[in-house]
Amino acid sequence: MELYVHFPFCAQKCRYCDFASYPGQAHLMEPYADTLLREASFFAQEVQSPISTVYFGGGTPSLLPVPTLTRLIQGLKEILPLGEVQEWTVEANPGTLTLPWLEAARQGGVNRLSLGMQAAQPRLLSLLGRIHSFQQVQSSVDLARKAGFENLNLDLIFGLPTQTKAEWQETLEAAFSLDIQHLSAYGLIPEPGTPLLDDLDAGKLALPAVEEEREMYDMLLQFTAKQGLEQYEISNFARPGYACQHNIGYWRQAPYLGLGVSAASMLLRTGSAPGMTYLRRTNTRSLQDYLSGMQNHAPDPQEEELISPADARFETMMLGLRMNAGVSEEGFARLHGISLDSCYGDRLRQLQSRGLVYQKDHAWRLTRQGMDLQNMVLVDLMDD
Ligand code: SF4
Fold first, then answer.
1. Does any ligand 1 atom lie closer than 6 A to the CB of residue 15?
2. Which of 190, 237, 268, 340 would give a disulfide with 332, using CB separation of 3.0 to 4.6 Å?
3. The pTM is what?
């Protein structure tokens, strides 16, 4: 079982962001921590096995005051089985970190730090509405090392409006000058309702051509390989032994409990049909509704959906094909009690003949072309 905790607080809203994150709400951090603990107590009976990974995401968890962070970690440990956690990640924003905060997190058991760097150039950081400079990324990494963090991730975005390939190369070089263990790099997807998409729609900005974005992705693959990082998922690269276990669990459909605003949970259920059935439950995106909804009663989910065995099988394909290890025949049969070949064999062989997937060591994987066209692959794997 895995645990995700969402922190919806940010110093400023980035121009591309559609996460549940709200600036100007710092006064609600204390009641928010109390509410998280109440929610953890409410769902504690859903946690049937020790929690192996924890992820504090956001928003900006690093904005929490040190005493609140310490109290929250301690409280969660009292409520949930956190004695065997292998990996505990906290997301942080450069420009918000201090040594006492990092030391408190380390002391509480956090052993992985994920920093949002995004780009190296001041003009691109400003176009994204980020609050920090690359120099602040450097000093955050220095502080993290001082506090004893040995497992550091940086997040980058490519395919930005006006971004050149030379700038992307410079960003990659800057990131690797910091001796990181892990890199997550995503192509920009302009989201509805964001100022960045408004500017694109209004013609004030333009995205790079699809071909240029593909070239940036190829640069990423080549650069990370040269630096000794292994690609283990479409957008994720790690030194040996540093792949993010929390995300791998998610892509392998390990059950997880999500606490906080907008957090999703995947809770196993026994269905009447054979195979895996689970409940997907998503909390409200509204900070006020979350706080008031948890006052006296169980939190009202924004969405609750029972995932059928057939949908769970498709999710295995959708999530598993993102990973370089692909979808293994053995893993599929163990999860669903039915063979991969009987469900998807014909369609996979069709896709293989088009050069989009291949089979190796009893697992189906995307080819390089398949990575670019993964949506097309998934459409072909959907049930009619
Ligand atoms: S720091 Fe992250 S969560 Fe906060 S506004 Fe920026 S992108 Fe969104």
1. no
2. 340
3. 0.94
- Averages of pLDDT over runs of 10 residues in the chain (384 residues) are 97 96 96 96 92 97 97 98 97 95 98 98 97 96 97 98 97 97 97 96 95 96 97 97 97 95 90 74 94 75 86 94 96 93 95 96 95 91 74
Q: Quick check: CB of 159 below 6 Å from ligand 1?
A: no
CA distance 153 to 168: 18
Q: Which of 215, 248, 281 corresponds to the end of one domain?
A: 248
379 lies in which domain range? Answer: 313-384
What is the Cα–Cα distance from 16 to 194, expressed in whole angstroms? 6
Residue 190 and residue 202 in contact, taking contact as beta carbons nearer than 8 Å:
no
CATH assignment at residue 52: 3.20.20.70
Q: Do 151 and 32 belong to one domain?
A: yes
The best mutation among 21, 22, 114, 140 to test binding of ligand 1, ranked by most ligand atoms within 8 Å of the C-beta, falls on: 21
Instruction: Report the CATH number that the domain containing residue 348 is assigned in CATH.
Output: 1.10.10
In a domain, 275, yes or no: no
CB of 17 closer than 6 angstroms to any ligand 1 atom = yes
Whether residue 302 is contained in a domain is answered as no
The CA-based angle 141-261-80, given to 5 degrees, is 75
Residues 222 and 343 in one domain: no
Q: Is the CB of 8 under 6 A from ligand 1?
A: no
Does the beta carbon of 10 sit less than 6 angstroms from any atom of ligand 1? Answer: yes
Task: Residue count of the chain, please give it.
Answer: 384
Question: Do 116 and 21 share a structural domain?
Answer: yes
Residues 243 and 322 in one domain: no
Alpha carbon distance 384, 379 (integer Å): 10
Contacts of 46 (CB under 8 A, 6+ apart): 257, 265, 267
Indicate whether residue 283 lines ligand 1 (CB < 6 A).
no
